[in-house]
Amino acid sequence: MSNIVVITGASSGFGALTARALADTGNTVYAGMRETSGRNAPQVQAAADYAKEHGVDLRSIELDVNSDDSVDSAIKQVIEEHGRIDVVIHNAGHMVTGPAEAFTPEQFAELYDINVLSTQRVNRVVLPHLREAGRGLVVWVSSSSVKGGTPPYLAPYFAAKAAMDSLAVSYAGELARWGVETSIVVPGSFTSGTNHFAHSGHPADGAVEAEYETKYPGLLQQVSQKLAALAPQGAEASLVSDEIARIVALPEGERPYRVHIDPANDGSEEVSKVADRIRREFLTRIDLADLLTAHPAGK
Q1: Mean pLDDT across 214-239
Q2: What is the DSSP letter of 102?
Q3: How far apart are CA 82 and CA 224, in angstroms?
Q4: Which of 51, 108, 180, 281 has the most Cβ atoms closer than 10 angstroms to its Cβ?
């Protein structure tokens, strides 16, 4: 059966690639993005052209994850057109680069809004439909920075991703008895094929940023060059979108809880194995082992 999929942040990068990969495998995909009639109009046209050329069901939809009204309207449209949603993918995110001290608290709050609070906006509108159906899948696009080696000058983004990942872990247990599955997808550092670095934000306090440059000259360039060098040939961003498409295609009840796609191997997978094992053991010790696996209605 074809799934009805909603993915956030699908104008470019992992989101756009995943929307296409899922449409290619026979799903009806709503590629959520903001300003569909404005700055993202070319991306809307590109998606429409792709759908026509490949004969797939890929639809762009206005979905600004920072707006309650926009999220409500988008999900209402999907439900009106299909009567259900089967898969929601939390992909929207934004990166900032620079010394942590140079960012204002307001900048931190804005970043958390995009990377963390956005998932709560979407969940509060989508999850009632999945819970009522007794089935469904929530995919969270996390980051290896949550548990892996973390270079400086990316602290606000890393902290936001860690918060989102922690939220995903808790949601997994809270949705299990409703039959709703959780998969946390953990990409490593992909220096090409996404716009994370190219579109990254910068600190508002330029004076503090300049002070740090006296002690850490060229740090960002060094980090980006080293990350690119660590990635083996063929480490394309499509590895992430292909893996998400694979997970969605798996039978209900068989989707993995967490998977890593980390060509640079920053250590995240090793740490996650320990953390996820401890989670399994602890839930078992307190007689909540049933929360480790979602059992969709009728399964």
Answers
A1: 80
A2: G
A3: 43
A4: 180
Identify the CATH number of the domain in which residue 127 sits.
3.40.50.720
Residue 173 is predicted with a pLDDT of 98
Cβ neighbours of residue 160 under 8 Å, at least 6 residues apart?
93, 111, 112, 114, 115, 116
pTM for the predicted model, two decimal places: 0.93
Check: CB of residue 141 under 8 Å from CB of residue 168. no
Q: What are phi and psi of 60, to 5 degrees?
A: -80, 145
| H-helix segments, the chain | 13-24, 41-54, 68-82, 105-112, 118-133, 155-176, 206-215, 219-230, 238-249, 268-285
Q: Which two tokens stand for residue 133?
A: 């159906």
Residue 299 lies in a domain: no
Phi, psi of 165 (to 5 degrees): -65, -40
To the nearest whole number, what is the mean pLDDT of the chain? Answer: 93
Residue 297 lies in a domain: no
Nearest to 87 by CA among 28, 46, 171: 28
Active site residue 157: yes
CB 16 within 8 A of CB 44: no
Residues with Cβ < 8 Å from 76, sequence gap 6 or more?
A: none
Nearest by Cα to 158 from 266, 276, 275: 266
Q: What is the number of structural domains in the chain?
A: 1
